[in-house]
C-alpha cells in the first residue's frame, strides 16, 4: 500500500458548531481500491466528515485533501471525480428518471445524449426500463434508491461516498449492489461507505473506521478489529468499543413506560 499515494488525506480535522466540537482531530489516509466502512454511533460526526470532504460544510481546521485538492479551495473540478449517495436525498419528484438523470449527468459534464443513453441502460440493468418516463413521485423507496445509486455513478467517479446505500432495497437488489461495489473497488475506485448495518459493513468493507465522539477509535480490517477485541461480530465490537452494554435495560424501561407499568 505504501508506494501508492492516498486519494484522500485528512490531518487533525476539527469542526465545531457553536462551542461544541463535533470533530476532535480526525486523521485518515485512504487509498485507491479501498472499501471503507465508516461507522459510529448517532451523532459521532460521520456525516460531518463526509460533507467536509464533499465541500458542503466549511469552516473547519486541519487539512483535507481529496484527489490532491482541498474542498475549501473553491476549485470544483475534483467534484467531477466524486459520486455521492446521500442518506436523505432531495430528489425532484416531479421529474422522471430520464429527466433527472440526464440533468445530473450534464451537471457532471456528460453530454445530454451520453447521459440519457447511459441512464437508460443502467435503469434497464436494475429492471426499471418500464418506468424510465414515469414521475419519480410515484416510485417506491427502493426504486428511488436505485435512481440515486445510478445518479452517483453516471459519470464514472473515482471516489464514491455512500450513506446507507442499501436502504429500501430488496434482498436481490442488495446482492446486485454489493457485487457492483466489489467490482468498482477491484477496478481501483475508492468507496466510502457509511452505514449502521453492521452485518453488511462487516462483509463488504476491506477496512473499517469507527468514529466515536469526533475521533477515530478503531481503524483496520474486520479481522484486525476482531483480533483487538474479545468480541465476535462487528456489532459486538461496536458495542464494546463505544462502551455500550445497557441495551436490555433501556429496552425494558422503554417497554415498561409504553405499557404504563413503570415510573422510570
Ligand atoms: N448544521 C449543524 N448545526 C449544529 N450542529 C450540527 C450541525 N450538523 C451536525 N451537527 C451536530 O454534529 C454532531 C455530528 O453530526 P453528524 O450528522 O456528523 O453525525 P453522524 O455520525 O453522521 O450521525 P448519524 O449516525 O445519526 O447520521 C451531532 O451532534 C449534530 O447534532
From TrEMBL:
Signal sequence residues: none
PROSITE patterns: ABC_TRANSPORTER_1 (PS00211), ABC_TRANSPORTER_2 (PS50893)
The protein's name: ABC transporter ATP-binding protein
Domain of life: Bacteria
PANTHER family: ABC TRANSPORTER, ATP-BINDING PROTEIN (PTHR43613)
GO MF term set: ATP binding; ATP hydrolysis activity
Keyword Ribonucleoprotein carried by entry: no
Alphabetized UniProt keyword annotations: ATP-binding, Nucleotide-binding
Gene3D superfamilies membership: P-loop containing nucleotide triphosphate hydrolases
Organism of derivation: Paenibacillus lutimineralis
